[in-house]
Amino acid sequence: MGETSDLFAGKSFPEASVSPLPPALYDLVAVKGNSPAVMFDKGIESLGGITAFVKRGQTVVVKPNIGWDVPPERAGCTNPDLVRHIIQRCLAAGAKAVYVFDNTCDNWAKCYKNSGIEKAVKDGGGKIVPGNTEANYQLVQVKNGKKLKNVKVHELILSSDVFINVPILKNHSTTKVTASMKNLMGVVWDRQYWHRNDLHQCIVDFAPVRKPDLNVVDAYRVLMRRGPRGVSVEDVDLKGSMILSRDMVAADAASAKLFGVEPSTLPYLRMADQAKIGVMDLTKLSINRVKLP
């Protein structure tokens, strides 16, 4: 796990209340320490605040990973406290409605309940929507897709004003690491097609279809082994971190570093960088690294 030093260790962290650059100039924010809610507030501050993304009267879709029927401690799904807090911040910014859904791998009702996310959404004032009905997905042509020529996408992704992608950083048996880009598999109907037809290429093909306006990578608890479902809490490291960026390639590159993996070793990230979907080389980015007490 030595690569984590490239993201946090050995860097000069600003004081938690200070941003050395104007928020608009940051490409990415890496926050370490404290609760998911506190980290989100400090991180979004460095990107101009939630009102830089959500305007009064807009509809918002928040897309966490709710793919697995596991409790939060197993780190298979996004932290429910983070989901609730983002919903609350969006509503405070004047959002008309905040929707949450996922096309799950396990039984959707059990995933929603046992992940803690269904309750978190309701407690936060959001609207939880099932993702298990094909009628809610619309066929979209994939421009320049090599493996994906068309794909059925959930109507909320196509109709909402703001798309906030909230994956959890974890190990994956095929891609090694999963975060922002792969989390988009949960907005399409036939996710198994991706696995059967070059998963890395399908991830890249779909990425430009509807880029998230904001990516918030939950790295509070990180499943380091035997992902993506999560088998035991023994496989989970408490990293207490978060990555925020408008660029999901950059977010995933930073997430890979935090995980302990060189981004260039991940095929989907190399391919996305080459396709100019985003920037993988973190040395080319303006990054605010914030360590909270």
Helix/strand layout:
Layout: E1 28-32, H1 36-45, E2 59-64, H2 80-92, E3 97-100, H3 108-114, H4 117-124, E4 127-128, E5 137-141, E6 150-154, H5 155-159, E7 162-166, E8 168-172, E9 176-178, H6 180-183, H7 191-196, H8 199-206, E10 214-223, E11 236-245, H9 248-259, H10 267-274, E12 287-291
Parallel strand pairs: 1-12, 2-3, 2-7, 3-4, 7-10, 8-10
Antiparallel strand pairs: 1-11, 5-6, 8-9, 10-11
Helix pairs in contact: 2-4, 8-10
What does this structure look like?
With 293 residues, this protein is of the alpha/beta class. Helix content is 28%, strand content 22%. It has a single domain, classed as Rossmann fold (3-Layer(aba) Sandwich), CATH 3.40.50. It has helices spanning 36-45, 80-92, 108-114, 117-124, 155-159, 180-183, 191-196, 199-206, 248-259, 267-274; strands at 28-32, 59-64, 97-100, 127-128, 137-141, 150-154, 162-166, 168-172, 176-178, 214-223, 236-245, 287-291. The strands form two sheets. Strands 1, 2, 3, 4, 7, 8, 9, 10, 11 and 12 form a ten-stranded mixed sheet that branches. It has a two-stranded antiparallel ribbon with strand order 5-6. A hairpin with a 3-residue loop joins strand 8 and strand 9. Helix 2 (80-92) runs parallel beside helix 4 (117-124) and helix 8 (199-206) runs parallel beside helix 10. The model is unreliable at 1-5 and 12-18 (pLDDT under 50).
Task: List its traits.
globular; alpha/beta; disordered N terminus; 293 residues; 10-stranded mixed β-sheet; Rossmann fold; 10 helices; 28% helix; two-stranded antiparallel ribbon
